[in-house]
Amino acid sequence: MNALKRQLQWWHRWLGVFLALPVLLWFVSGAVLLFVPFPRLSEAEARAGRAQLALAAVRIDARQAAQAAGLDGPPQRARLGMLGARPVWRLRDRDERWHLVGADDGRVLPALNASAAAAVARDFQRRRGEPAATPRYLGRLERDQWTLNGLSGLRPPLHKLRFADARATELYVSATTGEVVRDSTRSERGWNWVGAIVHWIYPTALRAQPALWRQVVMWLSGAALLAALAGVAIGSWRSVDAWRRVRRVTQYRGVYAWHHWLGWGGGLLMLSWLFSGWMSMGPLRAPPNPALERWREAYAAPPPTWPAQWSARLPAGPGWLEAELLWLAGEPWYRLESRQGATAWAPALADAAQAPDLGAALRRAEAASGVKIAARQELRAYDAYYLHAAHRDPPPLPVWRLRLADPAASWVQIAPARGEIVASSDRRSRVERWLYHGLHSWDLPWLLQRPRLRLGLLLGGLAIGAALAVTAILVACKRLRAIALARAARRARGAAVLPRRLADAAA
After folding, report:
1. Are the beta carbons of 178 and 86 closer than 8 angstroms?
2. Pairing of the two strands 158-162 and 136-141
3. Strands 180-184 and 320-328, how do they pair?
4. Neighbours of 298 (CB within 10 A)
5. DSSP at 305
6. In whole angstroms, what is the distance from residue 447 CA to residue 167 CA?
7. pLDDT recorded at residue 351
8. Helix or strand run (H / E) with residue 331
9. What is the DSSP string of 53-120?
10. Angle 152-156-162 (CA atoms, 0-180°, nearest 5)?
């Protein structure tokens, strides 16, 4: 037992010397992240900047646009929107490449150049009610510090532009889709240098290499977790010994006593945050879930060929921003979306009903995938597994929760108003949800309903953790200073002994 204690003390001491400062930075940057998230363009912001869809000018349907783009079958996504004053189809093929096709004349459009991107950005700002002066062009790029995440399914290049407004707004326009995909302000960028970038270890050069970045975060958080575990064990043993001897919790003095006391108060907090941060990297690789993938594909994936009953009829009506072609278990439908987020349906097949039968679509997905639906539940409020996290777009309500009859106990959430799968999980991912988000963000439903209480508890916990890290830094400094003084003393003794030995040798 004494040997184990010495080993734990050695690991706690030296891991603390090297990792106390990174852990302190994690706590401080976590507090910043509670107030300033990583820059992103919310769905409401994106809708506010889009132009109203000129459906009267549309002459080309989704199938004709796909054929013009040289696609063999239906694209993975087909969205009808505006590019400047003309309607366009934005098509994503099976290789995740985007194609722009004019919906008025069927011509394939080239990637946007700098002047076209500036026009898109200027119109976007004007529709949002912001100053719409000509922006400064900052270049065409593959990625930068503010486009490292949240742009899945959208390949670069991007055009970066900055407006001379009071907030120094920067917009990123996709050269392939002609849309604004991200915005940021001077304040967001400044705070994120001490917030998300520090907390996630997010410098561009490192994050551009996902495998290396993952290993760095896992090893740092894992080593810090080991140091904290060793500290909790040593602190517990020392308290037991102190109580047995002098009926006190600690026999330390000064900063060592503070470190011991804060370890009791914040040790479990630090363990939970370090462990959940480590879990965020997915250290335990999840096995594939073929049943869930088959069901998702059967419900939402386009078929390999266009259906024989395809109709060239296009959606009509004013007030829409975008029309997207969705496949509901093999049946095509146009879903229209307004500036307020409201949706409506238009059929893409001849002699189809005016709205999709989602119940029939679920039965077709069951038959095609071979995976039965064991139960269906309608959610009209968020719960522990379908919730509105802070700084995120609110997920749609109501939703249908489908419990699949597969070995992994998979769940699928479908928003009936939108017809799309909005979330899915299995037994393993639901456990990991608590081990990561539950421990790291404290996103318990009852706390999310009380945001001020949750914020206060998080800030209090972060303050305790930061204070514990500060005392660890002070203890480490004392330890290093003692080592330096001991080495200097040994060198001084050696320098004093050498002349005596030389004198003795001469005598």
Report:
1. no
2. antiparallel
3. unpaired
4. 20
5. S
6. 33
7. 80
8. strand 331-338
9. P-GGG----HHHHHHHTT-SS--SEEEEEEETTEEEEEEE-TTS-EEEEETTT-PEEPPP-HHHHHHH
10. 105
Q: Is the CB of residue 4 less than 8 Å from the CB of residue 219?
A: no
Whole-angstrom distance, CA of residue 271 vs CA of residue 465: 10
In this prediction, residue 6 carries a pLDDT of 86
Q: How far is Cα 280 from Cα 435, in angstroms, rounded to an integer? A: 9
DSSP designation for 371: -
436 dihedral zone (left: phi>0; alpha: psi -120 to 50; beta): alpha
Check: CB of residue 106 under 8 Å from CB of residue 68.
Answer: yes
Q: Which amino acid is at 371?
A: V
**Which of 312, 303, 329 lies closest to 94 in space, CA to CA?**
303
Identity (one letter) of the amino acid at 493?
R
User: Using CA of residue 119, residue 120, residue 123, residue 129, what is the dihedral sign?
Assistant: negative
C-alpha to C-alpha distance for 388 and 402, rounded to whole angstroms: 19
Q: Which among 353, 448, 341, 342 has a CA at the least distance from the CA of 392?
A: 448
Whole-number pLDDT of residue 499: 62
First to last CA, the chain: 53
HSE-CB of 63 using CA atoms within 13 angstroms: 16
- Cβ of 27: how many Cβ atoms within 10 Å? 23
* Per-residue pLDDT, 242: 78
pLDDT of res. 284: 77
- Listed in sequence order, the residues at least 6 apart from 322 whose beta carbon sits closer than 8 Å to its beta carbon are 50, 53, 79, 80, 81, 336, 337
Give the distance between the most distant pair of CA atoms in the chain: 118
- The answer to whether 74 and 93 are in contact (CB under 8 A) is no
Q: Cβ–Cβ contacts within 10 Å for residue 470, how many?
A: 18
- Report the 10 Å Cβ neighbour count for 379: 15
pLDDT score, position 49: 93
List phi, psi (to 5°) of 236: -65, -45
167: tokens are 């907030």
> Would you state the pLDDT for residue 491?
84
Sequence-ordered list of residues with C-beta below 8 angstroms from that of 503, at least 6 positions apart, any chain: none
pLDDT at 463: 95
Tokens (6 digits) for 158 = 């991007």
Average pLDDT per 10 consecutive residues for the chain, totaling 507 residues: 84 89 95 94 92 92 94 94 94 93 94 95 93 89 87 80 93 94 95 95 91 93 93 85 79 84 87 93 83 95 91 78 94 93 89 87 95 95 87 88 95 94 93 91 89 94 94 89 86 70 57
Q: Tell me whether residue 90 is exposed, middle or buried, using C-beta atoms within 10 angstroms of its C-beta: 0 to 12, 13 to 18, 19 or more.
A: buried
> Which of 413, 415, 311 lies closest to 353 in space, CA to CA?
311
